[in-house]
Design a protein that fits this description.
By secondary structure, this protein is an alpha+beta fold. It is built from 4 helices and 10 strands. Helices cover about 25% and strands about 25% of the residues.
């Protein structure tokens, strides 16, 4: 039966193609985008506020209360009349709802409030770059672009990938290897490791 080897070969090739499709960089990119922490900056509803962000708060008809506000190291800011507000980890919609609620509580009747990000918190790049430190975030900046902003690699740098350091519970730090083409986000801490040879 000469047909059996042909059918078997065809099935093996099809299986190989299906498996290869799941292990492509595009498949990994899709997986990464399912994580809320990696949601694109151009989706304001997905962005979570953090220490170092500045936001514009506009309260229509209330110019004295409107303005640009900076979130301190704890993700808090202070506004006229309502005082200190904790916005750490909140989306822009959640921040707007909280500010609206506080102003409705005895200060304003049905305030119309809009919020947008005036300036994103900085990112940090450490390790084997010529000028490690804190840098102003700009949209669509890849890890490789961030290395260039920090003066380029040192001669000892591992250039194939970097480590993303994310605060965990307590003082724990979660470390994840990321490709040089990954788009960074505000507040990212990128570490360029030393190569072994």
């Amino acid at each position: 039966m000469p047909c059996k080897p042909l059918i078997l070969n065809a099935l093996l090739i099809c299986c190989g193609l299906v498996i290869a499709a799941f292990f492509t960089p595009a498949a990994y990119a899709g997986e990464a985008n399912q994580n809320p922490a990696s949601a694109p900056i151009n989706q304001p509803s997905a962005y979570k506020l953090g220490a170092g962000d500045s936001i514009n708060v506009t309260i229509f008809g209330e110019e004295a209360l409107s303005g640009s506000y900076h979130l301190d190291q704890d993700g808090r800011m202070s506004m006229p009349l309502i005082g200190e507000i904790d916005l750490l980890g909140r989306s822009l919609n959640e921040a707007r709802a909280l500010i609206t609620q506080k102003y409705q509580n005895g200060y304003l009747n049905n305030p119309a409030i809009t919020i947008d990000v005036a300036a994103f918190r900085p990112f940090y790049i450490l390790g084997e770059v010529n000028n490690p430190g804190e840098y102003e975030y700009s949209a669509n900046l890849s890890v490789l672009n961030a290395v260039a902003v920090a003066g380029g690699f040192t001669y000892r740098a591992r250039r194939s990938e970097a480590e993303l350091h994310v605060p965990g519970v307590g003082e724990d730090i979660i470390k994840t290897d990321i490709p040089m083409g990954r788009i960074i986000r505000p507040g990212d801490i990128i570490f360029i490791e030393e190569r072994f040879f």
